[in-house]
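Try it yourself: sequence plus iron/sulfur cluster, in.
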Amino acid sequence: MSGVRPADRCPGLLRPHQAEDGAVVRLRLPGGRTDGVKLAALSRLALAYGSADLQLTSRGGLQLRGLPPVLPAAFLAEVTALGLLPAPSHERVRNIAASPLTGIAGGAADVRGLVAELDRRLIAEPALADLPGRFLFVVDDGRGDVSGLAFDLGYQALSPTNGLILIGDPRRGVPVAADRAAQVLIGLAQEFLAVRAGAWHVADRPEWAAERRRGAVAAPGLGPLAAPLGPVGGAASVHVPLGFLTPAQAAVVARVAGTGPVVVTPWRGLVVAGGAGALPDLVATGLVAAETSAWSLVSACVGAPGCVKARADTRQQARDLVACGAVRERTHLSGCGRRCGAPVGPHVELVAAGSGPYELAR
Ligand code: SF4
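Structure, out:
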């Protein structure tokens, strides 16, 4: 069967989500990779048609919000012309998160080529258009960062030539040669589709996953679950407060990057290759390069007025918490019990109560 299952509501360019603050379009960037030119163009589109800011997603993608309910043809044409819709039938399944610093600094291997090959193979298989929009591939360059995300299938490099296939579990993997990894992952995704029967994730088919993990060995384990901030390997690594990149910030990032790469991290950050010398310019726009900043500790769901379920303006209240110096440990504010966008790992969870104050939920 091709097409979208009714309950799969993950948005895309061709199927926006209608939120309280207008239509939301989600753009997939395999491995989080884009460049300064595309980022500048998207920021101009967000300003012209939407609510101006670009929203970074927890899978290293970008969202434009506040768009008209029916997207103007010129908007669709411009996004498509940027090369961000290479396969319309597969746009919502190109969910591939990768170690943001791969090929820049650290890691056991440069996995950028593997990410590109996995994306190519994914969109070349017509049946895989039916993967759930929530299904996530991770490609970890060995440092154990993105294998800490809630993923379905993944690869963790052990060296430039070999690694482990991860099947819903970051602790164990099946040894594989690096040059076969994309092919094996695509084969597993096809098998999952065959046994899926309505399941969203590999974890929903534990017997199938356990069978496929036969021969698995212990994985190296998880590293820091975020990219370090500041100058890294000649790049600038910055956190984007609350994951909303303003037009002024996007303009400076685009100027610093030029035609070079910009990587959107799954932790609401950007890595600007070759941008270490321009960190003061980036920080001057409000981007954060210091691990000790309260902004790198606080996150919030979209909240009011963007979400119909929200009981609070979570982002404004997060700004208030930072302004009064009240954030001392990782903290996430949610407008309701769904806790969208909550970080992986230990954190203080503040959930808006029915009326008035937040409830603390650790
Ligand atoms: S946590 Fe609740 S209020 Fe916040 S974005 Fe999700 S559904 Fe909306």
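One thing you can check immediately is this: The chain has eight helices and 20 strands.
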